[in-house]
Amino acid sequence: MEELILNIKSSIQLSAEAEEYLRTISKEKTVAKDSILIREGQSVNSIYFVKDGCLRSYCVDKKGKEHTLQFGIRNWWISDYIGIHNNEPAILTVECLKESKVIEFNAKKLNEIFEPFPEYEPFQRKLLERHVVSLHQRILNQLQLTASERYALFLEQYPDIEQYTHNYHIASYLGITQESLSRVRVEMAK
Amino acid sequence: MKALQLIKYGAIEDSLRINEVDKPSVKASDVLVEVKAAAINPIDKSIILGNLQGLLPIPIPSTSGYDVSGVVVEKGDEVSQLEVGDLVYARVPQDQMGTIAEFVAVDALAVSKKPGNISFEEAASIPLAGLTAKQSLDYVGLKENDKVLIHAGSGGVGSIAIQYAKAKGAFVYTTTSTTNVAWVKALGADRVIDYKTEDYKTIVHDADIVFDTLGKEYTMEAFSVVKSGGKVVSVVGPLDEDSAKAFGMAEYKLPEELSTVIKETGASYKFIFMHPNGSHLAEIKSLMEEEKIKPIIDKVYPFNESIEAFNHLASGRAKGKIIIKIN
Hints:
The complex is a heterodimer of chains A (190) and B (327).
Chain A: H1 2-9, H2 16-24, E1 26-31, E2 36-38, E3 46-60, E4 66-72, E5 77-78, H3 81-86, E6 93-106, H4 107-111, H5 121-144, H6 147-157, H7 167-174, H8 178-189
Chain B: E1 2-6, H1 12-15, E2 16-20, E3 30-40, H2 42-49, E4 62-63, E5 67-75, E6 87-91, E7 103-107, E8 111-113, H3 120-124, H4 127-139, E9 147-150, H5 156-167, E10 171-176, H6 181-186, E11 191-194, E12 207-212, H7 217-225, E13 226-234, H8 241-246, H9 256-265, E14 268-271, H10 278-289, E15 297-302, H11 306-315, E16 321-325
Parallel strand pairs in B: 9-10, 9-12, 10-11, 12-13, 13-14, 15-16
Antiparallel strand pairs in B: 1-2, 1-4, 3-5, 3-7, 3-16, 5-6, 6-8
């Protein structure tokens, strides 16, 4: 938690009371590989900050196949924001791909931080902007780049991730089949 | 709930009906699965025709089907390894037969989460055939560089056995007919033998393992191609004596002809009874997620066309599994 608090304080002035509030609405946890933190169909109560390790959010289509939305690695936040925003059951599942250290925040209370502690707002806004930039970039890459180019960028953004992911996790994240991913890898190896 | 039921033994059209029945009750060790898809297997057809009344006595009416993929919607108090919402697949135990229905209660130990990269329909195609292949080849200790002969490479069991054996690093001989040679080769088999134009007995020599899925003369012929000290494993041949005793047949003796050839070759013989096993399905799940085993589907039928699905199975023309989509 200390590292996160320091990170927050590098962006904004955080009062002792706000810091205490953040501590009371959060819990540090070590999560085992294959654990499910958020399950599709259940209420979304938490937002996770990843201190170390890797989480993955995915949806399941009508046919029963998984599609990766996001990998949550060190210093990233991950949850089902659609469920939180719409106050509806989760449409995503968040699972742990390797043993991870996370800070679990009560989603409702984190969203209520602004009234007592309006100074927190710029930090939250920057986080959201970072998230939007990442999503826009991903959409633009999907529209403009080849599978090989997208895979190369993916490896830059997520070094070592292939040690603890399945090929289909990555293939679905990139929007390609597993066969295409294999071909891309073969081409890159040449 | 709706369920496809065997209402009497006999021809498929006369023996199957979609009935309205009670949802199954869930024991403490069970999960209740909302069925998304069920696969049909040759054993289902044999049951309908009445060929297995002695071996597998079942009440009439009974819901048909052993293979399932779906969603856990309820779990018993003793179940800890699965949760409501898990996407799963299973080959259900005999006394819980009845997957061609909207819901099925299954002992949780027989259930595994399904591979995430395949659909419910594809997952349903795997359990019975996959467990048969894996349990047979694991029993005889199949390992890297072993030479293994797998008959009927285009069949449900054979096609998965080829892929499983290749995942283990074995050298795979298989037999199939001319029309299936290309796609069976694509499964990874090293030497595909077209039985219409080639005699496999002149091609396969000193195999470490023969996986017999054809029975009759093929069980005996296995001993002409297996090496001295090799292993023959069968799912259709005569019982071996240990398996028969485990089945309550204390006086059973191996047929003399088979007993003689076993002694002459120094090879071993084992009959495998496939059994439901969630842990084994979890191992298969890992291989499927790495695409070392891929499902092979012939056709998917809607629930209300179940009889057509069984007729298609009975035609013997299917290349791959026949699936019934339930929900």
